[in-house]
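Action item from last meeting closed. Structure (357 res):
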């Protein structure tokens, strides 16, 4: 335990109770298990899934059945190391890998634990009881989730390590992109981070697409060579990209991705479309022999992302557009839902004046 640190009985947290019912409230902090460290959270990035739980009471097939702490894009500092001696010591800055793979009845490749059918994720209602997230002043986290951050890497930048890992995984699914033309459909935070990863990976030309100017401005700042509005269908189709990353999560975006791919090209689908049947230009994909590849979360890419953020080869700073203190958490979520005005919105969990938790 760090000098002078006393385990608090409660902590402020962002809790989704039901659709439209999001609260900043004081909740208990349990005694950590032997393999858990107590982490003082510094920053948390608001993800699309967090917005879905707030707005709809569900994220895809994961339905909120009880109050749940949100948040899986988090960084902070260990204030009490795990009692079993595993993981980083107190005082260590850390990023968090939020997944807990688990075996299940369905088969999956052993080297791709992101496909584990019984995998749990911080801040997910996929299973019941739900897996609480870590949008709170303090969080008990398994030491295996913690990734030590270099002292030279600021926590604010490191807050993008988790979503950047999603982008890194998506680009890796496409194979070697060096010297190729890449098209990114949807320039929200994941799309913009994908642009940054493509830039680092040596793509010769990167075209970013979105419906709003702000996301396109961010994508330009992190490496896009050309930007197009989503309704410029002829211009998108004329790109003939070797690699297309679909990150809009809409069937309209997927249609643009298929049209914008060169014959024999690759389309990586990282944007999560709504569950159920979706209209797809599948005949065009067949006759052009396109490879349609799914991309879901990530595995160990976070280690590479942290190294790239540290040495500066992965430039992501413009992706963060807003930062709010925890007591303005509701305002932060309102801003994050406004994709026309915001990129990644961060919550700052620094102590609020007068808060003794």
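Sequence:
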């Amino acid at each position: 335990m760090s000098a002078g640190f006393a385990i608090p009985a409660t902590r402020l947290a962002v809790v989704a109770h039901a659709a439209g019912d999001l609260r900043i409230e004081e909740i208990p902090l349990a005694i950590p298990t032997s393999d858990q460290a107590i982490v003082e959270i510094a920053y948390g990035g608001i993800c699309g899934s967090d917005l879905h739980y707030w707005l709809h009471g569900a994220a895809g097939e994961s339905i909120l059945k009880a109050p749940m702490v949100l948040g899986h894009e988090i960084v902070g500092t260990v204030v009490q190391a795990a009692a079993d001696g595993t993981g980083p010591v107190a005082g260590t800055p850390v990023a968090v890998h939020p997944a807990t793979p688990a075996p299940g009845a369905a088969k999956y490749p052993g080297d791709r634990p992101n496909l584990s059918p019984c995998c749990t994720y911080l801040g997910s209602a996929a299973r019941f009881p739900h897996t609480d997230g870590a949008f709170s002043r303090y969080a008990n986290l398994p030491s295996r989730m913690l990734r030590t951050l270099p002292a030279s890497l600021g926590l604010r930048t490191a807050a993008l390590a988790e979503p950047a890992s999603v982008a890194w995984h998506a680009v890796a699914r496409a194979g070697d992109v060096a010297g190729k033309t890449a098209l990114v459909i949807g320039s929200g935070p994941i799309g913009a981070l994908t642009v940054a990863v493509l830039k680092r990976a040596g793509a010769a030309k990167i075209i970013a697409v979105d419906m709003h100017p702000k996301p396109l401005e961010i994508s330009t700042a992190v490496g896009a060579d050309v930007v197009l509005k989503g309704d410029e269908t002829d211009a998108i189709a004329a790109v003939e990209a070797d690699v297309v990353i679909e990150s809009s999560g809409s069937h309209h975006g997927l249609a643009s991705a298929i049209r914008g791919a060169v014959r024999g090209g690759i389309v990586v689908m990282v944007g999560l479309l709504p569950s159920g049947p979706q209209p797809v230009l599948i005949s065009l994909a067949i006759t052009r022999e396109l490879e349609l590849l799914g991309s879901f979360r990530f595995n160990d890419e976070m280690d590479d992302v942290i190294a790239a953020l540290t040495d500066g080869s992965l430039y992501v700073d413009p992706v963060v557009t807003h930062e709010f203190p925890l007591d303005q958490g509701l305002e932060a979520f309102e801003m994050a839902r406004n994709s026309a005005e915001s990129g990644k919105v961060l919550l700052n969990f620094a102590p609020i004046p007068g808060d003794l938790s």
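Note appended to the action item: The CA atoms of residues 48 and 101 lie 21 Å apart.
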